[in-house]
Specification:
about 250 residues; alpha/beta; Cobalt-precorrin-4 Transmethylase, domain 1; Methyltransferase, Cobalt-precorrin-4 Transmethylase, Domain 2; five-stranded parallel β-sheet; five-stranded mixed β-sheet; 8 helices; about 20% strand
Length: about 250
Amino acid sequence: MSGTLFLVPNTLGHAQEGAQPLAQLIPEHVQATTAQLGYFIAENAKTTRAFLKLVSTAHPLQKPLQEIRITELNVNTKADALPVLLQPILDGADGGLISEAGVPAVADPGANLVRLAHKLGIPVKPLVGPSSLLLAVMASGLHGQSFAFNGYLPTDAAERTKRIRALEDRSKKDHQTQLFIETPYRNGALLEALAATCRPDTLLCVATDLTAPDESVKTQTAAQWKSQLASGKMPAFHKKPTVFLLLAA
């Protein structure tokens, strides 16, 4: 009989020992479940060890941290390697799939592994935790009944402008909020492109460092953002994880 694949939420990178308590971000029962797992499939082994160290301050781990097996699954992992990652679970051990930040299998390379787990008859159990995408939708004030995550936009200026216009057209046609992200050091360039490209009355939300003490969420029209940027007031989001949202009127 196989074990269970637990989908383990991580923090969004803002919990530290002696700072923001982990319990403010990850429910206690989720921490307790995580502490009982001896095998993890992780996007980043180093990040996972740091997370498990935080968990261990309140919930003793099943075995010493250095003895917990962690194998990596990232964007470079080939499809034919996935069965090997699931073999310990097929052999009867419970295991956890954990992302570098937030929830696994959402804007994360773990989705294919979860699909394979279903195909192989492995029970899959998602655990509750923070998702920057859902938190951004909640806080934006934009349409929450229909929304789509589009990943990264093109870095080439012309292609990016073309993509923004296409997303804006889709948003208007379907009354659908469009979400996307950017490499943190390019946040400013993306916001400038959005303000310059979108129709004046299109709503744009910038949600930065969600769950952090200095988190910021601001929604205003493209025209208002354009005016703000023209006055030299760029948001304090350089090199900070940010979710961008768009809703066309």
